[in-house]
Design a protein that fits this description.
With 629 residues, the chain is α+β, with helices and mostly antiparallel strands. The chain binds iron/sulfur cluster (SF4).
Length: 629
């Protein structure tokens, strides 16, 4: 077994109550690495095609990576995956904090849950042992209360809890799996999968230690990063958090009023990271071993929107989705809405973008107070925002429909409202504008999980000499404009997207990765595992994992026709510094095909070709898909 892994995967069958442990060989780990790699492997191998995402046969996988729990900044990440109830496609979400680290210390690289318990249960994992325990007493409770109750019951304040809130229990397809109460594996509705299995929580405690092949070499990398990050953009992350993104998107890229605009002139100054720092910030928080401490802890003690610091504070994505996208500039209201999402277990992006859809439809007269149960859903109404989030968390009133996500809600309402649902494959768009970042738009369209920014790239990062330096080791030498969609940009996409996917498979934070250097990451993986690895091997690993997720979608019936963006992104901004900017449809189409060719995907089906899967060393996936040579 290579260093860096425990070599053990815990399997839990909630129908039979059985728990078993399997021990994959060293080749498995070097091929699939962790995170999405492990998730995609088991979904492809074991999940029958066409499985109901909310049926007992769906697999729910919690997976760490080779870097998770290593004593180096950014090592606090892990991933959750299943077939998504939101999209019907590959479901995957990453999360930071401490839970993944604790799982490693408890002796497992991953946990695979199948079946369905008859009554609510939670899983208790401690130092190599696992037990299924009753959870009826915490079912229906908010996440912070559950965490406190389980810690008390287990007699250890250091127990780490991954759990669902009431939204997941009630099977909302935009429900998150909350970790440590204030970090969400938010995307693709995995909370509903947990709810469908009657699994309230996975509580973990480990006192073990990650085995490192070359501790001194790893210490050198860790020290280099501590000295290096203050000279990079990660220094801003420490100071103002990811919320710094609000003032970094003033070129017209701040999604406003359901992506109708890219500027929020009337309110952006009130929801910036700087404003948060100077008003409601109580503390900065870190994931395991990270010197950056980019996480916010906010508190509001008076006024209509009280905020409890236990739920952390809003990230850039949350401020964009629940703030500018809904036209809301009241920072306390946004922080309160963030708290409600964390307490009820909702993905803040999908939640905010769905409310923004409803606000636009209401203002256009496509939704009325009769539909909404009397709610006046207008852009800028902070009270309506907060009330709606709570209804969505409880799945009550009009909130029940909205907690299905924007596409399903639009389909249920009809009347042309679907045109305003901002999604790809049914998943709501994150807070980065394809009319400002053309290549990122392509990344949204082709993503196996639907629109996502986590395994994507930001054109603006590669538009100048300084930015392009980070990809020179891959042979990409020239800066590229944000609105370039030519073959050179697609070559960048075909490198940057697999590289971002690799970070997920390693269990390594993308912020630390992007303020580091690719060759430092190679050095780090070598030090942890003892592998004679290279940039080439790691990039191929990222590509392999991405191809497996795409292959899963092919098997579930997805085709190239599903790689589409909302039409709004092909219509020009009417105002602001980016007035006139729009994705050119023909160029975008050409870029998509070029990207397919570079990735070795079939032009018509969008599936990875058999030759590509063989080239990536996973010919068995081609056999499973019955792809011809
Ligand atoms: S940079 Fe932020 S998100 Fe990443 S590991 Fe550090 S504290 Fe966590």
């Amino acid at each position: 077994m290579p260093h860096g892994y425990t070599g053990k995967i815990l399997r839990v069958n909630l129908t039979t109550g059985e728990t078993t442990v399997e021990e994959p060989d060293a080749r498995f780990y070097r091929t699939y690495m962790g995170g999405w790699g492990i998730i995609a492997y088991y979904l492809l191998k074991e999940l029958p095609p066409g499985t109901d995402p909310l049926g007992p046969d769906n697999l729910l996988v919690f997976a760490t990576g080779v870097v998770t729990a290593a004593p180096v900044g950014g090592a606090g990440r892990s991933a959750v995956g299943a077939k998504s109830p939101l999209t019907g496609a590959f479901g995957g979400a990453e999360v930071g904090g401490w839970w993944g680290t604790e799982l490693t210390m408890a002796g497992f690289d991953a946990v695979i849950v199948t079946g369905r318990a008859e009554k609510p249960v939670y899983l208790w994992i401690k130092d190599g042992a696992a037990e299924i325990r009753p959870a009826e007493h915490v079912w229906g409770m908010l996440t912070a209360d559950v965490q406190a109750a389980l810690r008390q019951e287990l007699g250890d304040a250091r127990v780490r809890v991954a759990q669902i809130g009431p939204a997941g229990e009630r099977l909302s397809p935009i429900a998150a799996v909350m970790h440590d109460v204030n970090r969400a594996a938010g995307r693709t509705g995995l909370g509903a999968v947990m709810g469908s299995k009657n699994l309230k929580a996975v509580a973990v405690r480990g006192t073990g230690k990650k085995e490192i092949a070359d501790p001194q070499a790893l210490q050198d990398v860790a020290r280099w990063y501590v000295e290096h990050y203050p000279t990079t953009w990660a220094a801003d992350l420490h100071d103002i958090g990811t919320a710094g993104g609000v003032s970094q998107h003033l070129e017209g890229g701040l999604p406003t009023c359901n992506f109708q605009r890219g500027t929020f002139d009337e309110g952006w100054e009130k929801i910036t990271g700087e404003r948060m720092r100077d008003t409601i910030l109580k503390d900065r928080d870190a994931c395991f071993a990270c010197p950056v401490r980019c996480k916010r802890v906010v508190e509001v003690k008076e006024g209509p929107y009280l905020v409890d610091p236990i739920y952390g504070g809003p990230e850039y994505e949350t401020i964009g989705a629940l703030g500018s996208s809904c036209g809301v500039s009241d920072l306390a209201a946004v922080a309160r809405a963030n708290q409600l999402c964390n307490a009820y277990g909702l993905d803040t992006i999908s939640c905010g973008v769905t409310i923004a859809w409803a606000m636009e439809c209401f203002e256009r007269g496509l939704l009325t107070a009769q539909d909404t149960g009397g709610l006046e859903l207008r852009f800028g109404d902070a009270a309506a925002l907060v009330q709606t989030v709570e209804l969505m968390g409880k799945r009550e009133g009009f909130g029940r429909l909205l907690s299905e996500g924007s596409l399903r809600a639009a389909k249920a309402i009809g009347r042309g409202t679907e045109a305003y649902a901002m999604h790809v494959k049914g998943q709501e768009i994150p807070m980065h504008e394809p009319r400002i970042k053309y290549g990122l738009g392509l990344g949204y369209a082709v993503s196996p999980t639907g629109a996502d920014h986590m395994h994507n790239f930001h054109d603006v990062d590669f538009a100048n000499e300084e930015g392009i330096a980070s990809v020179r080791p891959f042979g990409i030498l020239e800066p590229l404009k944000f609105n370039d969609l030519g073959p050179a940009k697609m070559r960048l996409a075909a490198t940057a997207i697999p590289w971002q996917t690799l970070h997920n498979a390693l269990g390594f934070c993308m912020f630390v990765a992007s303020s580091s250097k690719p060759l430092k990451i190679v050095e780090m993986v070598r030090a942890i595992t003892g592998w004679d690895t290279s940039l080439h091997e790691l990039l191929k690993a990222g590509e392999r994992v991405y191809a497996m997720a795409r292959a899963f979608n092919t098997r579930e019936g997805f085709t190239a026709a599903d790689d589409r963006l909302p039409t709004r992104f092909f219509e020009p901004f009417r105002e602001g510094p980016s007035a006139g900017n729009a994705l050119p449809p023909d160029e975008f189409e050409r870029a998509r095909l070029t990207f397919y060719q570079m990735m070795g995907w079939d032009e018509k089906t969008g599936a990875p070709t058999a030759w590509k899967l063989h080239e990536l060393g996973i010919g068995w996936v081609a056999d499973k898909l019955r792809l011809g040579e």
